[in-house]
Amino acid sequence: MASVPDDTRLPPEIWIRVFYWATYCTARDLCTLLQVPLFDGITYREDEAQDNEALQTKSTLALVCKQWKALSEQYLYEDLRIRHGKQMLADVLEASRAEDPRGLGKGRYVIRILLPNSLKKSAGYHHNRHWADEETSCIMDCCPNLLALCRYHPIFSRDEDDDDSELKEERIPNTPTEIDGKDCCSIHDPPLPSFQRLDWFNGEMRGGPWRPTICAVPSALWSAQQLEVLSLSGDNYFWGPSGLQSLSGRAILLPKVHTLRVGSRHAFGVSGISDYTLVLPSLRRIILERGEALHHLIECVVASARSAAPPDVTALEVGTPHWRFMRSDYISTLIRHYPTAETLHYPIFFARPLRWRRLRDNGLSYGPHETERVFANIRHIGLHAEPNPEITYPIQYSNSDNDKSDVIWSHLYAHARALLGSSSPTLLESRLPGIHSVTLHGQCWLPLVTDTRFHLILDLARTRGAEIVAQHPSVANVLQDVLLNYRTDLIFEWVCAL
Questions:
Q1: Is residue 463, in this structure, part of any structural domain at all?
Q2: What is the C-alpha separation between 129 and 139, in angstroms, rounded?
Q3: pLDDT at res. 359
Q4: Domain extent at residue 498
């Protein structure tokens, strides 16, 4: 028989503190919860691994003994994943609420809820079950302190959870299917009175023919005055027909949203049918995850801000390595529309070098006049070196590794010249004269900074007076040695020239 841990020597307060650090997850810290990590589309699996480990530890603690289960209960329920077994979870939360004199129960501990992406069907299915079925709605109704609702990155979900007999069909622009007089996209939609973050990915369409379905965003979004972080992504529609009709032409005010992440061209309506505008006076950060979403973002968010005081956006980011950013220079267009930006982050191998074409060359009939030729507010650049197979695809059958390497370095030089090029006011490369620091994100920079060709980038940075640093510790250590050798060589050349 396993012995019960002898915890009588420590008071419960000490054990609670031990459990706090042993089960730490990203949902617990409010500052972390209400901030999207840099390059989240690349690094989210690292945070996911930390949360998975914390979840396993929580489950283990709850199985040790009754006292440890009671002491760790608040951590066990803080970060819920709704997947298989959700009926049992709903029963537990409801029962605990009924037994609690305050009517709260275990649901009072819940800070974040993660929902699975259930759009795994082929494009032949033109229907989708609404996200908030009866069990999910019951669970969320038991969580009065819920701050974040996330259905963005995939989490484990059994295929048998999907029952085709329960799927409800809806199409745009046809009349919606109704159940008992209610739009089936909102029949179980629960109120979310306290949530401050919504990350919503409404699925991909695989196979052909390509046709979007409907995966309705929680209706509470449109009246969420306390919302601070909003992410909308996916290939499908975010509303049922009746919901879109009610939003059409409206200006929706979300006064506290400081971070907007957009990865869907349907994020603000159905192009050519109906759309709406978002008024975000507190907006400080924009994360663009799909290039084709940029023009709709400009029409429905940027344009709506011109009638009032425009938001003071200070951070621009391409958060996901998507092939579309290699097809056109979306980044310089984004900078033009938000000239107040102070930082810019993007994955360098998944972005076209900045060319600063005029707005009409990008096919835009809206936007600011070309009065800003220099964007001096941008002072910091962050670059991730996530590999892109497409860079070397045309020469993938080449027997020469040097050919592939030349393509990579040509791409790097083009970006470096656009960002750190000549300070002459007559050259296009001087559009960003205020850059004083560049951060290299990720471990993929390691073989690049040790290459002697990296010295050309160091030359540009030195001429501009910009500092290059690395975010990953292993790259930072190597970069420090590279910079030391580079400066030593410069001193040697200077001495020889005397």
A1: yes
A2: 17
A3: 44
A4: 353-498
